[in-house]
Design a protein that fits this description.
The protein has 119 residues and is α+β, with helices and mostly antiparallel strands. It has a single domain, classed as Beta-grasp domain (Ubiquitin-like (UB roll)), CATH 3.10.20. Helix content is 14%, strand content 26%. The protein has two helices and nine strands. Strands 2-1-8-4-6 form a five-stranded mixed beta sheet, covered by helices on one side. A two-stranded antiparallel sheet has the order 3-7.
Length: 119
């Protein structure tokens, strides 16, 4: 089982292949935002990967990061827990002014069809 380390929160064993956004909310208990419901569009689920960043990225994530001119962050809704990873949560419900974190993302990566490319 991969180990998820969340800066300032702790270390957690998570299921292989689990979406990082769900590992953060379910396993680590972090109030991670995910306003678009895990579709890779809104960028509210941003994290900084401190260690263990995957070499692959979904086309949806890459397109969104480029369109928003974001660097140095990843979208937790588009990452799968496949190896040990250490992250810093950037976008949390607390202090955001939002009523809720967003609709719960599906267990599987969205949007379909999921296409992978290199960073």
């Amino acid at each position: 089982m991969p180990k998820l380390t969340v800066e300032g929160v702790g270390e957690f064993e998570v299921a292989e292949g689990k979406r990082l956004v769900l590992a953060l909310t379910d396993d680590a208990g972090v109030d991670q935002l995910h306003a678009c419901g895990g579709q890779g569009r809104c960028t509210t689920c941003q994290v900084e990967v401190l260690e263990g960043e995957p070499d692959e990225i979904t086309v949806a994530e890459k397109d969104t990061l480029v369109a928003r001119e974001l660097t140095g962050v990843r979208l937790s809704c588009q990452l799968l827990c496949s190896k040990d990873i250490t992250v810093r949560v950037v976008s949390r419900l607390e202090g955001s002014g939002r009523e809720d974190a967003g609709a719960r993302p599906a267990d599987q990566l969205q949007p379909e069809p999921v296409q992978w490319t290199t960073r």
